[in-house]
C-alpha cells in the first residue's frame, strides 16, 4: 500500500514496501526548493526503522546539483544505519548528471523499481560507498 510522505504544489513523494525495500517514488523536480523535503522524508523513514531504500526517479523531469547533493546526504545517513540504496527509473537527462558528476559508478542504478526490488537487500551494502566494491 503506497503511503504519501510529501504532498505540496511542487512535489509529491510516496513509499511502498516491496521485498524488504522501501521504494520512495518522487514526482516533481528535485532541486534547491524540493531537495530538503526529500532529505527530511528519508530521515523520518530511517527514524521509523526503514533501512533499505530504492529511490525511484521515474517521475522527476528535472534534477540539479542540489538534487544530487540530497542523494549524497541521504546515502550517508542510510550508510550510518547499515542500510542500502538503489536508484531506479532514471531518465537519460538525469543519468547524464550522474555521469558528469562522476557519481554513476558510486550507485547501483536500475532501469525500474521492479528490477531494483527483484533481489532482497543486503545489510551494509554501502560499506564501500562512495567507491564501488570490486566484483
Automatic annotation (TrEMBL):
Residues of the signal peptide: none
Protein's UniProt name: Anti-sigma factor antagonist
InterPro entries on file: Anti-sigma_ant, STAS_dom, STAS_dom_sf
STAS domain residues: 11-120
Pfam family, one: STAS
Family from the record: Belongs to the anti-sigma-factor antagonist family.
Domain of life: Bacteria
NCBIfam families: ant_ant_sig
Species name: Streptomyces cynarae
Amino acid at each position: 500500500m503506497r503511503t504519501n510522505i510529501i504532498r505540496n504544489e511542487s512535489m509529491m513523494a510516496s513509499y511502498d514496501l516491496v521485498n524488504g525495500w522501501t521504494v520512495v517514488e518522487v514526482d516533481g523536480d528535485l532541486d534547491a526548493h524540493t531537495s530538503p523535503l526529500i532529505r527530511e522524508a528519508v530521515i523520518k523513514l530511517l527514524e521509523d526503522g526503514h533501512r533499505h531504500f530504492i529511490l525511484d526517479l521515474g517521475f522527476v523531469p528535472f534534477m540539479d546539483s542540489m538534487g544530487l547533493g540530497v542523494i549524497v546526504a541521504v546515502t550517508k545517513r542510510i550508510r550510518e544505519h547499515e542500510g542500502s540504496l538503489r536508484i531506479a527509473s532514471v531518465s537519460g537527462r538525469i543519468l547524464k548528471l550522474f555521469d558528469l558528476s562522476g557519481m554513476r559508478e558510486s550507485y547501483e542504478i536500475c532501469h525500474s523499481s521492479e528490477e531494483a526490488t527483484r533481489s532482497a537487500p543486503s545489510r551494509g551494502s554501502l560499506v564501500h560507498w562512495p567507491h564501488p566494491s570490486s566484483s
